[in-house]
Amino acid sequence: MTHFTKVCMLMLMSSTMMFGQTTIKKSATVSIPEEQNVSSSYPIPGSDRLAKRWKVEREKLSASGVRLSVPSLKKSSSFGFTVGAQRSWYATDMSGSSDYEYSVSSTCRAVGTNCYVFAEDASWNTYITQAAVDSIVKAFEVRTPANTSKGIFQLDTMYFGTPPDVDGDSKIVILILDIKDGYSGSGGYIAGYFYGINEYSDREVQSELGSNRHSNEAEIYYIDCNPANLTTSNGIAGVAGTTAHEFQHMIHWKYDGDEISFVNEGCAEAASALCGYGLRSPSLYYANTNVPFLDWGESSENVLPEYSRAAIFTWYLIEQFGSSLTRYIVQETTNGEEGYNRAFQSIGSSLQFSDVIKDFSVATRLNRKDYNSKYGFDYQILVKPADHHTLTSPNASIVNDTLKPYGTTYLTYINGTSLSVNFSSSSNISVRAIATGTSSVSVTDVPLGQTYSVDGFGSLYSSVTFAVINGTQSNVLYSLSSSGTGGTSALELKYDDTEPIGYLQLSAGDTVCVWFQGVSGMKLDSIRVALRRAGSVRGGVWRFNSASQTPLGAPLAVPITASVTQTPGFPYPVPWPNWGSIDLRSYNIDASNPFAVAFLVEGSSTEGERIMVTSAPDPGTYTSLTYLSDYGGWYFLTSDYNSEDEKDSVWNYVIRAYVSSANGVEEQPVELLPERMYLSQNFPNPFNPSTAFHYILPAEDYITLKLYDMLGREVATIFEGISKQENTIYWTTQNLPSGTYFYRLYSRFGTQVKKLVLLK
Fold first, then answer.
1. For the chain, which terminal residue's Cβ has fewer other Cβ atoms within 10 angstroms, N or C?
2. How far is Cα 61 from Cα 313, in angstroms, rounded to an integer?
3. Are the beta carbons of 60 and 208 closer than 8 angstroms?
4. Is residue 325 part of a domain?
5. Angle CA 717–718–724, to nearest 5
6. CA-CA distance, 451 to 449, in Å (whole number)?
7. Which residue in 600, 609, 603 sits closest to 533, CA to CA?
8. Which domain holds residue 188?
9. In whole angstroms, what is the distance from residue 222 CA to residue 247 CA?
C-alpha cells in the first residue's frame, strides 16, 4: 500500500493549477502504483524461501545427532505406483508467517520412465485435467520445445547432474496442486517448490522439529495449478517450465544444499530456458544494473529483478562455456563467487568471476557476437540496459557516483567530436568504451587516471557508451570529467535513478510537480515526461516558491502540453520508450534559480494519462510533490514504511529538465551541480583511527556533521561551520570504543544519515 506524508498544508487559493479562467478540483485517492502488483499475478520464491528455512532446520537436526550426510531412507524396492493409485502427500502451507506441513489427498494420473505424476484430488477437473498431465509427462520424458528428442529430465541432468535417490526409487514424484500461498486472485503466488525436508525420515523430522512437521521420505517437488491455467497451451507450457526449474533445485540440493540463492535460482531459470520455455525477461535487470550483483532480495517477496539478473548471467555462462561449466557450478560445494572461480578452474580456464562479469557487462549492452563471441548472445534479446547518464555534450563532469558490489553503470555520449574522458576511482573499477556507428563497432579498455581519447567519435562512431564496472564486493566511488567540441550544450537534470516502475493512481484534480535546483548561467531548453499511455498532459513551468508552502511561484511557461501516441505493454520495455517532449527555448527561461514543473491529473486512473514514477531512498529533501485535492495540500508520497515514524523511500515522478548555456557558447567543461545534497559512505569503513567523510551540497551552506552512538546519543562533532559545495573532511577519533555509530550531515538542503564501524 502507498502511504503519504504531509509536507505542509497550503492555502487553497494557491494550491490548484489555473488554465485561463478554469480551475479543476475534484476528490483524490492514493493507491498502489506498480501495475504488476495491482492487476497481474507474478511468482514469488518458494524453493528459495524453503531452502533458507531448511538450512536452519538441518543445522538443528545435525546438532541432535542426525547423520545428514548418510541417506537414511534407502528402501529395498521402489514405490511402484500405477495410474489410479491414491496417496496422501505432505505439502507445505506457506500462506502465513509459519510454514508447516499438511496432508494432500491425490491420485497418480500418469507414470513415465523417470517420474510419477500425482494430481490433488480437490483440484482435479477444476484446475488440472488429464490432457495437462499427459502433456507434462511428455515434456518431462520425451521432448521439449528446445529439443524434439530430449525431455526435461535428459536436459537438466545433462547440464546440472543427476538427481538424489534416498527413497530407493529412481522415479521422481511430481505433485500438481493448488499450493497454499495466500494467493487470492492477484499479486504474488508460488509457482512451485522443492523442499529438502522430504529427503529425511518422517520420524527424525517430527522428533526434532515438532509434531506438525513432516517428510514424505521421497524425491518429490510441487507444481502449482492456480493461477496457472492448465486448460490452455500457454498455461501448460508455463507449468512445464516450472517443472524444469524445480527439478534443477532438486539436483542442486543433492550436491550443495547451501548454495546461495543467486547461483541456485540462476541455474533453475536457465533450466527452463534450456528446455525452450523462455528466459526470464532481462528488462527487469536491465532497468537498473547498478545493484549488488550476487545479492538476493531479502525484504520483499517480489524478487523478479533478482531472478532476471541471475537468469541472464547464467545463460551467458551456458552460451560461453556449455554444460561442462554448469555441472561444476552445481556440484562445487564452495558457494557464490568462489564457487564460480573453482568451476572455471575445473574446466581448465584461467578466468575468474571478476573477469567474466566485465565481458558480461559489455555483452548485455552491445550484444554483437558477430563482433566478438564473448560480447553477445545467441538467444534473441531485443532490449538493452538503461543508461544511468545520457550526455548530449562532450563537456561534462560526474562527481563520486556510487557503484554497488560488482554493479555496472552505463554512460552514453551521443553528440559532439574530439571526445576525451578521464575516469578516477577510490577502488578497483574497470571501464570499457563501447563505440558504435552505422557500420563500425569498437570495444576498448579505458585506463584510470589518464586522459583517454575516443578516436572517430562524431564521425566513425555516432555514440560511445562507457560501461563502468565495480570489480569488488564493496561499494566504490568513481568520478568522470570529459571534454570535446560541438554537440548540444544541454545538460540533463533528473531525480529518477532507475527506469519507470509504475504510476500512482491519483484522481482527477490532483497535481504532480518536480522542482529543480537552478544551474548558474543556464537557460531552460526543454522538458521530457515519461507517460504511461497514449494521450496528453497539461501543465506548466513556474518559479519555485517553497517546498513548505506551494512549490508554484510566478508562472514562466503556462500552459504547456506533452503528448505521446503509444501505450507500452507490461512488463515495461527497457529503455522506456514513451516520452513526451516540450521545447521551451522560445520562452527564454532563466534556469539560474530553482524552478518547478507541474502537470494536472485528468481522467480516471485506468483511462486518463498518468506520469510514471520510480522509487528512491528517502533523500531528506523532497523534489517530487503532489497536490491531493481531497486533503487540500501538497505532500511528498512515500513508497514504503518500516514503522509509523520511519520513512523508507519516496516516489519520484519521471520528469526531466534540460538546460543549456545562456550565451550558447561552451568555453569550458560545464559541471552539473548536484540537484540535492549527497553524503558518501565514509572511507575506509570499518576504520581505525582515521576516516574521511565526503559530501556535495547544491550550494555553499552552514552545515553540521555529528556522530551518534546506537542509542542516539551525540558522541562527537566532526565539523560545524560554513562549507563549500563539495568537501572532504578527515577525522581521527580519540577515545571512542569499538562499535557501530551513525553520522549525520545537516544543512538547509536536508539531513542525511549513514552508518560506520570503528574497529580497534
1. N
2. 35
3. yes
4. no
5. 120
6. 7
7. 609
8. 38-256
9. 10
Asked if 645 and 746 sit in the same domain, the reply is: no
Instruction: Give the amino acid at 608.
Output: G
Q: Based on the fold, state whether residues 728 and 644 are members of the same structural domain.
A: no
User: Please, what is the average pLDDT of the chain?
Assistant: 82
**Contact by Cβ (8 Å): 395, 666:** yes
Are 540 and 656 in a shared domain? yes
How far apart, in Å, are the Cα atoms of 26 and each of 160, 211, 606? 59, 58, 17
Asked if residue 275 lies in contact with residue 240, where contact means CB atoms within 8 angstroms, the answer is yes
Which domain CATH number covers 413?
2.60.120.510
Residue 296: inside a domain: no
pTM value > 0.85: no
Residue 436 CA to residue 108 CA, distance in Å, equals 58
State how far Cα 575 lies from the chain centre: 14
Number of domains within the chain = 4
Nearest to 511 by CA among 414, 373, 391, 653: 653
Quick: pLDDT tens for 14-72.
233 333 222 222 222 333 343 433 334 566 667 777 777 766 766 666 666 555 443 45
Do 710 and 688 form a contact (C-beta atoms < 8 A)?
A: no
CA dihedral 61, 66, 68, 70 (to 10 degrees): -170
Grid-cell match 534407502, residue found: 74
Both 459 and 564 in one domain: the answer is no
620 and 692 co-located in one domain? no
Question: If you write DSSP's letter for every residue of 261-284 in order, what string do you get?
Answer: HHHHHHHHHHHHHHTTS-PPPTHH
> Is 9 a residue whose pLDDT tops 50?
no
Task: Tell me, yes or no, whether 13 and 92 share the same domain.
Answer: no
Does 369 fall in a domain?
Answer: no
Number of residues written out for the chain:
760
